[in-house]
Amino acid sequence: xxxxxxxxxxxxxxxxxRSYFLKLLxxxxxxxxxxxxxSSHQKIFSILQKELERFDYDVxxxxxxxxxxxxxxxxxxxxxxxxQMLLGHVDTVWPKGTLKKMPFNIEDNIxxxxxxxxMKAGIAMMLTALKIIRDDNKINPEVSPILFLNSDEESGSTxxxxxxxxxxxxxxxxxxxxxxxxxxxxxxxxxxxxxxxxIIIKGVSSHAGxxxxxxxxxxxxxxxxxxxxxxxxxxxxxxxxxxxTIDGGISTNVVAAESRASVDVRVQTKADAKRLTKAxxxxxxxxxxxxxxxxxxxxxxxxxxxxxxxxxxxxAQEIGNELGLELKEGTSGGGSDGSFxxxxxxxxxxxxxxxxxxxxxxxxxxxxxxxxxxxxxxNLLIQPPLTD
Length: 388
Hints:
By secondary structure, the protein is α/β, with parallel strands linked by helices.
């Protein structure tokens, strides 16, 4: 891609935007959004809808089945037919009631609360950046920023993935405001692809004391299978295979007729995703009269360092240098919707909060370091279109 001319806009976060960010973030964190809880998701979407409408955005709330659906927003007036997308999610991994144990709190430079790092601070950063653009008539992005938030990302984006893919196709670029990587705030320029496989093993039951020889233990076969799966691990090349849950049998005095396993697979390349899918789905039983039923595949492809993604990273790094930010990049083992958008357009992930402790009781956000990223986001949004 051709190198874009760098435009740098000087932003004073302390002039009202710090307080705006904190007020909005508190409201978002205190609106709990547990997994598969449609009513809570719709509640937070309502908060965001009102806020975006103040920025002269048209907002659509798209229905979901097991989630609260998605929020799609675009400016009422646009400068061109060229678009960029701000992408994120409102759902968290925390069950309802967690707020009582992990209340929203500010202590010096540390912000805490359920889902604050992954990724409600990223949403607050997103809206603060849009507010800055709205407030200054001198800022007119050549590439119109739209916003898409789903409520099922933590459970695999089952309902929203098709819409994410569809929206990504016409976009000039996508900025994913998932949290950054590690406490030093690395931008996520690579993500592993995420696969999930469910295995059912069917054997033959019998009385374990009277005639065990007539049985064919599905649990014994599962033990063989787990070892085969474990051998597929290749940490040097970023491949991990984890049998996360197992189940089987009905009683200690019965040879188990059925057992089950759920398997998580992470890879860095599309080639490894294809290879691992074939290796797992083609596994066969080592025991006569025992059968395997293996279903699944890769829910999210890897986010790779292709030419267009590297161009967007280089642009961010150049802007960061102008703003006095020393940006670093890294690879994440976790998945995000950026892996879908990267299939179709330039994507930069991990532009959200700086902090650590995602999905854990130690979840926290570093306030000043996260606020420093907002001018970066604004200046990325005002850049000219990326061109081939």
